[in-house]
Amino acid sequence: MKQGSDKCLIVITGPTAVGKTIFSIKLAQHFNTEILSADSRQFYREMRIGTAYPEPEELAAVKHHFLGNLSIAEDYNVARYETEAMALLDELFKKHQVLILSGGSGLYIDAISRGIDDLPDHDPTLREELKAELDEIGLEAFGEKLKALDPEYFEVVDLNNPNRLLRAIEVCIQTGKTYTSLRRNTKKERPFRIIKIGLNMERDLLFKRIEERVDRMMKNALLEEVKSLLPYRDHNALNTVGYKELFRYLDEEVSLEQAVENIKTNSRRYAKRQLTWFKRDTDIHWFEAGDVESVLKFLESMD
Fold this sequence. Notes:
- By secondary structure, the chain is an alpha/beta fold.
- Helix content is 50%, strand content 10%.
- The protein has two domains: 8-116 and 185-301, 3-Layer(aba) Sandwich (Rossmann fold); 124-182, Histone, subunit A.
């Protein structure tokens, strides 16, 4: 990027295990700047192993924000993230011309790059009715209900996240419109330029990296971490890959071997859903994971 140009936020995104952390650190070092996380699971300080939290030496290399800043017991949502991240960006841009936003949580990246849409408030009565229906028919059938109401959102939403399903179905019923259409309201203006970089790699290699990372997590005491979080297992943050599968093992529903295999399977599925989400965004410029030089050349060519 040209010196003296407008303030710029470089977004680094892509599927899980593609190498966003180290890539972002190298980019931040090049620009002598700081990184904001857009990985909603890494916000929680108690969830380190199962979220591939950056290593101490990685954290020491570049200043990071929105990492381990919350307790698992706290309620948090994307609207609060938008407010807090925008306030922080305003402060950091006083010191830096370029900042990095890095992560794989598409909803949180959209919150910064587009802004949160103005959706209707929760209807407590409808929400209770939907919760009762979810309990009665189960998560898979509840997902099919969303598919009938909004097939486009069904293709990208985390089908294992009941709160996401509940909210989408609730909005569809309240408004008579699809959740997708309401999430496409006017993009909010931002006082800085945004350049989005997507990292990807050949599918078989990505899946191999995912499986190897799950094995490392298990060796690094992921099971012990999950045991320590049992009192909080009903919190939404823990209804996520790597934790819910081991809760099932602790409930004696599956063997440990099967639980680990389920983590790998669900992580691969999560990666595919991430890519589906990101591929819809035509503003993302895609590069081979690890190719920092090509990204730097691309950024330098930008007016």
